[in-house]
Amino acid sequence: MAAWAGGLVIYLLTHGVIPRLLAVEVVQPITDRLTLDSSGRWMLWQVAAQEWWHTPWLGIGPMHLANIPTLPNAHPHNIVLQWLAEWGVIATLAWVLLLGGWLLHLLWRVPQGHAYAAWPETQRTLYWGVCMGLWGSAAQSLVDGNLVMPYPQTVIVVLAGLALGMTVSNTQPWPNLLPSSGAVSRRSVVTLRLVLLCSGAVVLHHLWVMTPTLEQRPDQCLPFCGGPLPPRLWSQGMIAWDDDLYRLPLRISDIPSAP
Q: Which pLDDT score is estimated for 258?
């Protein structure tokens, strides 16, 4: 009951109180997204399936789906169709079998192991939350772009890391998986610090260079993609195309057939 109440409070804060305090206008409420149509996804799926049908084994290449006339800078809102179109059936089968097998392992095999029986109740609760988060992300990837966008990608990687960290040992409970200070070599510590230092320096450099022009970048992108944030291009790099040719058609009959 406390979890339900906490979730409700967080929802009200993030979707009601905080936007009003910051004077943020909600242009499209979440209730407007609850529709029975495909929101244009059906056409995107047809285009992706058509591209895969013409190059079934190896696909048209990574990111190439975002550079065809019918899907400029877009993705099909279905990760399996995206893999089929861009990577082909061989790579897609490998990914689906690998990730699907791991998700099934988390759902059925891990709870039957000896380590799971030794976990405290708090760890079991956390584990099932992580497991359901990964399964939910897999289901959402069939109708959305959570495996394409940077923000949900980060959340999914964190969930996957938690799942791996809790299931990597078959004999020890999770709290004992963390290595002791004596088990970590000095070379590993120095290497990790150097990696973190270099990564932080790169991030700070990009922030220092890019921050003064952040407000101008959406305006620079507007003439090319019809909007400030093209879905698959979140940096200043743009895929070049003919402005008159590369337009999303209004009807599926307008899609030119592949040669």
A: 43
Q: Among residues 50, 81, 73, which one has the least CA distance to residue 246? A: 73
Q: Report residue 207 as tokens.
A: 């922030």
In order, the DSSP letters of 146-193 are TTTSHHHHHHHHHHHHHHHHHHS-SSS-GGGGSPPGGGS-HHHHHHHH
In the three-class reduction of DSSP (H, G, I as helix; E, B as strand; rest coil), residue 212 is classed as helix
Residues in the chain: 259
Return the sign of the alpha-carbon dihedral for residues 68, 69, 71, 74: positive
**What is the mean pLDDT for each group of 10 consecutive residues in the chain (259 residues)?**
76 79 68 68 88 90 77 81 92 93 90 82 89 94 87 89 78 47 65 86 77 62 53 49 42 44
pLDDT computed for residue 85 by the predictor = 92
> CA angle 78-81-87, nearest 5°?
125
Contact 103, 135 (CB under 8 A): yes
What distance in Å separates the CA atoms of residue 117 and residue 130, rounded to the nearest whole number? 18
- Indicate the helix (H) or strand (E) that contains 224: helix 216-225
For residue 175, CA distances in Å to 54, 96, 107 come to 51, 31, 21
Spatial CB neighbours of 47, under 8 Å, sequence gap ≥ 6: 68, 70, 71, 76, 255
Instruction: Return d(Cα 253, Cα 257) in angstroms, integer.
Output: 10
Residue 226: which region, alpha, beta or left (left: phi > 0; alpha: psi -120 to 50)?
left
pTM value > 0.70: no
For residue 236, what pLDDT is reported? 44
Residue 23 CB partners (closer than 8 Å, separation 6+): none
The predicted structure's pLDDT at residue 11: 80
